[in-house]
Write a structure and sequence with these properties.
The chain contains two helices and three strands, in the order H-E-E-E-H. The protein is α+β, with helices and mostly antiparallel strands. It comes from Methanospirillum hungatei JF-1 (strain ATCC 27890 / DSM 864 / NBRC 100397 / JF-1).
Length: 62
């Protein structure tokens, strides 16, 4: 599982946006996997949580 998470996050793209939370990140190979944050570090942390939560749901519900 950790290898999958690392591989997915290695393809993440981040950019600055003109919104309340000025950082946006997404994983292009996983449509719908995106995050925002007040800092780039927070944005990356939230995106990691998104991936982990998706994996947990997939394991639980198939």
């Amino acid at each position: 599982m950790n290898d999958y998470i690392t591989a997915a996050l290695s393809t993440a793209k981040f950019e600055g946006i003109e919104e309340k939370e000025p950082y946006y990140g997404e994983i292009p190979s996983l449509p719908g996997f995106w995050s925002t944050g007040d800092s780039l570090k927070e944005c990356k942390k939230v995106l990691l949580s998104v991936v982990k939560e998706w994996i947990a749901l997939w394991i639980r519900f198939g």
